[in-house]
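Q: Hi! Curious about what Glycerol-3-phosphate acyltransferase, chloroplastic looks like structurally. Here's the sequence.
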Amino acid sequence: MILSTPGPSSAFLAATKPSSPFPRVSKLFFLAPSHSLSSRFRSTARRSTAFPGVLSSLNLHAMAELVQDKEVFASAEADSSKKKNRTRSRSFLDAATEQELLSGISKEAEAGKLPSNVAAGMKELYQNYKTAVLQSGIPNAHETVLENMAVALDLIFLDVEDPFIFSPYHKALRKPLDYYDFGQKYIRPLIDFRNSYVGNVNIFNEIQEKLQQGHNIVFISNHQTEADPAVIALLLETSSPHIAENLIYVAGDRVVTDPLCKPFSMGRNLICVYSKKHMNDDPEHSEEKRKANIRSLKEMALLLRGGSQVIWIAPSGGRDRPDPLSGEWFPAHFDASSVDNMRRLAEHSGAPGHVYPLALLCYDIMPPPPQVEREIGERRVISFHGVGLSVAPEISFSEVTAASENPEEAKEVYTEALYKSVTEQYNVLKSAVHGKRGLGASTPTVSLSQPWN
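A: Let's find out. The predicted structure is below.
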């Protein structure tokens, strides 16, 4: 998704530039997309629920943790329900079999508590997730599906009953229940780690050092699936765990309005914006969306002023799609204005800023619809597959644009340099994962490894 506001004016940049440096904060952030109108962006206190742990493979120790997590989850929701003077349904958390879980969806739909389209989506999600996890060959795959989906369906239902409202800057919900951990455990069984790779771990280490020194980092990246944040975090959790947990994603509105997606978004740090691709879906609200994006831009500027922030943005404005004729996947082209927005914000933050090109290959596990859809509620196709992530050295605006004759040309030249790097890295990952070359696909500029081994 994309930060699709107009380029910040010099007056805005001057207003957000600190007269004296703020204290450096040792947190890292990632931005993700948001979809709501201003009412959906306002700050609000939600019931204190986050995710319980879910298993990717079951053993006695893991089962004990799961039982404890579900008890904590149920207790927290019970406390919340008491405050609201209503009884929380346990149709999903108490389900002991697949039949009971699916019957719970039908039961809540028949009671008028679940819209028919959401109920249908939940059933389809269950079946597709089950098929994918069974492909993985992990031990106790059926139990993993049941436990992960019981929590996922309960959280979806909870949000339908009491919708969560995302603020312009949303911090991941980690207590008393951990939504981040839920998302990790849900996506983990979908990744074939034997055929997954990380490019240039040494540069991620370099980035970590810069963050510890108070510098800001911006990742300019392609975007492939709704699961991108979990994929990135899972690939980095061994070598760069602090980055994995604290990235901030610039997020489009669809991932914070779709009932089947919201619980996963709640476990990520997000800057919520309206994607340029959907800005004029409803012309009556276009101006309101632009104003909401300006508010999110200001939130981002405040974060950057504190230093030690790491932000992810996909300046294409949405997920990559395959070529309609060849069927080949490739990174969608970047919007130069969005790239320039991020560069200028980083430069005017008062802390040193760095821009890195990041490539992501993971469309197989959860590909988007073939075309961009206006309506919320897309089908979720899910598979078990290898994935890849790579970062290249920082690209300096002043060095790349030294020969440019005007600002507009400089924007285009810089954007193209970033896009070229992302595409080159993507092709290496593609050769490793789809071409089955593995670590042998490494090049002089992209060194592949499997940090989890």
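A: A fun detail: Residues 1-74, 77-86 have pLDDT under 50 and may be disordered.
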